[in-house]
């Protein structure tokens, strides 16, 4: 599932039993989305989530909570997802972090989302 460039999107809900085979979610350029989709934990087959150029409050909360034992509400929603990547532009260069280990990751230029500036 890909949600990109929906600048007015504020909320997303995933109903229980919806999209049972989905393995990857990519979201980007959703500046008003301040929390992960409600019910994202219902995507039982989800293996990878990518968050590109998202609301800074959301990504900061995810990264900061990953460093604590308690985590946080948003981190609990994706606790079962093996790979979560947060990417953002900094000084015109893409930076990304793997949420689970907070390590930098390599970004292949051709795999970056096409975000207009």
TrEMBL record:
Top-rank taxon, per record: Eukaryota
Protein name per the record: OLC1v1016084C1
Organismal lineage: Eukaryota, Viridiplantae, Streptophyta, Embryophyta, Tracheophyta
């Amino acid at each position: 599932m890909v949600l990109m460039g929906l600048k007015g999107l504020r909320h997303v809900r995933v109903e229980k039993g919806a999209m049972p085979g989905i393995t990857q979610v990519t979201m980007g350029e959703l500046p008003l989305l301040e929390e992960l989709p409600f019910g994202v934990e219902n995507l039982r087959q989800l293996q990878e989530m990518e968050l590109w150029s998202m609301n800074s409050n959301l990504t900061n909360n995810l990264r900061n909570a990953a460093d604590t034992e308690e985590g946080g509400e948003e981190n609990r929603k994706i606790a079962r997802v093996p790979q979560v990547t947060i990417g953002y532009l900094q000084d015109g260069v893409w930076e990304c972090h793997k949420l689970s280990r907070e390590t930098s990751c390599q970004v292949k230029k051709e795999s970056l989302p096409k975000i207009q500036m």
